[in-house]
Structures are given as C-alpha cells and as structure tokens.
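[Meeting: bench + compute handoff]

Bench side (C.D.) handed over the final construct sequence. Compute side (W.E.) agreed to return the predicted structure before the next meeting so the bench team could plan truncations. Sequence as handed over:
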Amino acid sequence: MRSTIRKLVERLDGALALPEPIYEFGAFQPSGQESRAVRELFANRDYVGADMREGPGVDRVLDLEALDLPDDSIGTAISLDTFEHVQRFWKASSELHRVLRPGGYLLLCSVMYFPVHDYPSDYWRFTPEGFRALVEPFESVFVESAGLRDFPHTVVAVAVKGPVGDETAHRIRRELALWKRRDAQGWKEILTLILPPILMSPLYRWYAGTRPGSTKSP
C-alpha cells in the first residue's frame, strides 16, 4: 500500500471516528510495506485485517466476491488499492454493501494511471465516474481523484449506507480536498506525472524487482 493512501485513512478516521468493527479487505502486507499498513491506526479498535490468502497482516481469509459475513454486520469496510486485483469487482461492491450495517462507511481507492502490478493479478483500472457507478447502491457517495484532471493516478470513494447530515458531508469533502492538496503526491505519484510511460515502465519494473520477496511481472 502507498503511504499517500495511509494518510487518507488517517485523515478520514480523525474527522469521522469510523464506526466499528472495522474490516480492511486486502490487508495482506507484502514484504517491505509493513510500515505503511493502516492496522496500526486502529491498534486499540475492533479491527480485522482480511484478504484472499493467509499472510502478514491477515486475521481472516475472506473472498471479497462472496464474503462469509452476515448482513449488516460491520461498521466500516476499507479496501485500499485492492479492487484492481479483484476479478469480479462488481460482486465485491455488492457484497460490501450487504455486510455493512445502516450508517456504515466504505472507504475505497484504486489506481488509474499506474503500472501493471501483481498481488497476485492485476485486472482493472477505474475512472472517477467508474467509481461512482461502482458505489451507486450507497445512499451517500463522495468521489475524488488525485493527479492530472484527465489522467488521475488515484481514484477515491467514500460511500455511506444511508443518508448523512450536512456537517458529516462537509467533513468528508473537506478531508478529501485536504488530502488531494497536501498528501496525495508521494514520489511514486510524482513520477507518473513527469515521466512518459516509456521511462516509467522499466523504472517501475526495476523497483518492483528490488523489493524483498518480490517477483517481476512477465
């Protein structure tokens, strides 16, 4: 996970006091990314790290396309840079809506302009309007993107299962705007803005291949 996304979660939780239990879907921590994990933000909270496979950061193995969770059972669902790796992402969105209780929050982000990256497979890219369509079943939806207007590197959605008041809506919009302006441009994101793909691709493949335990994409 990217450090810029961890800052987004920290901002939103500080403003909203995200309801528990908090489930992070896609919580597997690849080697070298432990310091960016969001679970530390919820150290004293009812937090569950879930993923499709066992490993570091994973408390429960769950399939996002068919969650083994009761209806209306969780307070917050977090899925960070994960939906591009979900083969049938529309099923995952429906499942998250099902398991969230009324008033529950979904924090969703994914990449648009970003190199192909395995974990274990990379299927999709999302535009802001694509995210709006994806979270359409939710009553309250807030979508933001970061990077170039026509080529954002990241798309974010905050969706609530039910209506929110004006004050809460203002807090969500404010924190998304502050994140976009102050926190959304790490070194990876800056590279996507300044390097053409012909340079970005080999640089990213070199970096991915230098991480402990990593395997290069074919």
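W.E. noted at the follow-up: Residues 3-185 form a domain with the Rossmann fold fold (CATH 3.40.50.150). C.D. will use this when planning the next construct.
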